[in-house]
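hiii, so i know i said id send this last week but things got crazy w the move. better late than never?? heres the sequnce for the chain we talked about at the cafe, plus the structure i predicted for it. fair warning i was half asleep when i ran it
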Amino acid sequence: MVLGAGLAGVTSAWYLRQAGFEVTVVDRQADAALETSFANGGQISVSHPEPWSNPSAPTTIVKWLGRADAPLLVRPRLDPALWRWALAFARECLPARCERNTRAIAALAIHSRQCLRALREQLSLEYRQRSSGILHLLRDHHELRAGERRSASLNALGIRTELLDRSGCERVEPALAGDPDELAGALYAADDESGDARLFVQELVGHARSVGVEFCFDAVVTGLHVDDGRAAGAWLTADGERRRIDADAVVVCLGSHSPELVPGGSRLAIYPVKGYSVTVPLARPQCAPQVSLTEESRRIVCSRLGDTMRIAGTAELTGFDLAANPSRSGALLAWFERHFAGVGRSEAAEHWSGLRPTTPSNVPHVGAGPLPGLWLNTGHGSLGWTLSCGSAQCLAELMAGRRPRPDFPFLA
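okay and structure toks below
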């Protein structure tokens, strides 16, 4: 039984079925990918394995305090889970821990991209994908020098990148020629991709059903069924009735809600980090970017999804509050209008917010849970789309008793 029908849950169901398991997926929504996977930034960003918790993070966060438009907005309050997470985050900023976490994320991300490409070819998936890479925009010479160091580090990890000047950026993405702001250059990750995560999940649901995976929607998971110390199913509420579904193994893919279900869940240290996106229909498609972009200094990403642009970013530590914040999502729209004036129909933009399930280290929990029969695939933070296929394939390997290929701290 797989709990959750987002990217992590549906990819887990697919690879488990391919490994020979009989699989049922349970989700509280009426369809798949209606929560965190609904409208993310669209990037398969293998070139961004560096965790948010890095040696420069504390100084940067202090600089942003008190700014309503800060890329990371913290609303301090009496929330023990937040303070536990924040203390753990600070510890993960130590250089040695950051380096270890970066290596782990990079190894899983490279493997995940290979899994995605193989799956796309196997099933002829169409999800508005683009394989034209990602340009990480660098606005001044300080950022350019940092980009040069970062490029060397990424290349050492096996992630191919190239440092470009402004003319090189415009050669890769002609739409940048009209950018009114200074652009010192960019870090170009030509092997990266982009695509519509929700459409990918929906496509994969259809294929999973065709090979026997069952989906149980509109069913709220209220607790695990534990028999003799072993996870043996789950209790659900559907159509006003409470019932139990038995299973030989239970996989938790519930994103930010995972700790609520897992015994000793506070040790998972997953906290919801709220992000925003706007999806803008194109008025002049011929003038819109084709290559996915990352505005490094603002933590904004921009991806072409068919005849729309998806602009996403920012982070808020506000608990499980999903209320709209027009000033936050409006800032994303303003960024797009400034850099690509007249390209989109901003008046028709769709605003969205979601909760990224984030660990202090940014390293997800993949592997065995605290009870026999309980497994985890959760806590992917802002890299859920990037890591989804690889995490799921490795989980299936672990559950089948085999050792996954990536050098990653899987839970044993």
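btw The longest strand covers residues 271-281. thought thatd interest u
miss u guys!!
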